[in-house]
Amino acid sequence: MALQLIGINGGTFDPIHFGHLRPALEVMERLNLEQVRFVPCYQPVHRGQPTVSAQQRCEMIELAIAPQPRFCLDTIEIDRGGPSYMVETLAELKQRFPDKGLVLIMGSDAFAKFHTWHQWQRILELANIAVTHRPGEAVPLYCEAGQILSAHHVKRFTQPSGQIVDVPVTQLDLSSTAVRSYLQQGWPVDYLMPAKVIRYIEKHHLYRDE
Question: Residues near 121 by Cβ (< 8 Å), separated by ≥ 6?
Answer without folding.
Answer: none
